User: Fold this.
Amino acid sequence: MLYAIFCYNQEDVTTAWSPEHDARVMTDLKAVEDRLAAAGRLGPVARLLPTTAATTLRKGDTPLVIDGPFAETREQLLGFYVVDCADLDAALEVARDLAVANPGLGAYEIRPLQIFRPGGDVGSLG
Amino acid sequence: MTDTAWISTTLTSARPQAVGALLRYFRDLDRAEEAFQDACLRALRTWPDKGPPRDPVAWLIMVGRNAGIDQVRRGSRLTPLPDEAALSDLEDAEPDLAERLDGADYRDDILRLMFICCHPDLPPTQQIALALRIVSGLTVPQIARAFLVSEAAMEQRITRAKARIAAAGTSFETPDPVQRAERLGAVAAMAYLIFNEGYSAGPGEGRAGLCDEALRLSRLLLRLFQVEPEIMGLTALMLLQHSRATARHNAEGEVILLDDQDRSLWNRQMIAEGLALIDKAMRHARPGPYQIQAAIAALHARAATPAQTDWAQIDQLYASLERLQPSPVVTLNRAVAVSKTKGPAAALEMILPLESRLSSYFYFHGLMGSLLLQLKRPIEARASFDKAISLAGSLADADHMRRQIDRLSAARADA
Assistant:
């Protein structure tokens, strides 16, 4: 079974970390990753930029582009894509295509990645 | 990581919100700060055993409020209790506290706390000192070290600033949208002042850490005002400037100009975030000075080598900035772009009329010297570099000019 593990924390706190503190946390986390990678159990790893860097495309007849993360608690995070885009406009284009392919309720939150490590082959699903 | 490291980051990041709320309750800055201090002491005693509360900010406000009320009661034996109106909301039930923290009050509390530090009567140095003390929670010795003054002098500077804002009075009314926008503008300017204070310091100087602090304040503003393009621009500007921090000086602490910097030392994560924010800001089509400056910084960040820099675009952006915010310093910066696109003669022609207004500005004489040098007028160039040295604000800047002169002498010896 493959599991996704999503990291939640308080942004007020994490963005107040000193560069040294941030580096130390990343080093400590990397040690855990390295153990998993050595066992061939680690897939892609990503760290997202802060929610302030996010843009959301709200689905609908005329999709609405709004700043910030989509904070509607009635909807849950159901998956994610990692796509290479030149800039925000290119990313919005992809989100619009997704919204056309899967119309209706919901939203796509566009969050630039801060760290991305594709990782090893842990098999594939679906 | 030590056991208490997480506590101190939590307390630091909670500070603006907690002190802002306590200020609204007590309507007295000293009392609000004392109450927060009490709450922090209690957190340091209880959190290591019990773990952090679910909502540390709400916890600190509640505990601080109770501590503050105790203080008022104890003090009441000596001095008469302030009238009920002065202590607003004291009877509020606690359960609704957490709920209210999600509300708009929250945002206005923090904005008010930051805004009182930007009172127009306060000179910039006092605004910065006050904001670092009150909003960031730096200690007086830390601030004194950053500004290379004695602790006593800094204590006095902060006390004076506090007296001045107390005399001016603080509005506790909920601001209307126009007032809120004005406050936001003033607070953003203050954050940028702090940033520049850090940016202009040499490496290892106490002030260098102020860039990180200013960035933290700017991010905080951005979280409160997520759809304000100028706050996106300000945060992007700080990120893009600060991304070059390790490349801006060599091991001897000497200044390295943009063209000569090792671009592999630029912080890619900060650049990625800065570019993402400026992209977002541009979508609003409401340009402002921070966005334009960030867009200029973004063009430098996007250039893999100095030769790939889009100077024509930078020239245009400076032209927009000149229209929006005319200033001889902006024209001076534009002249650098013009020197790259149209040559040093055109740039020199552009800055000569600024001489009377910028005669005591370090960078004016530095650029003048460099343009004259490119135009093969070494004697005048030397005079300009000498003038720049006499005006340098930091040792690193003065050294940089001296090296220009050394190069000049070497070139003449070769000739």
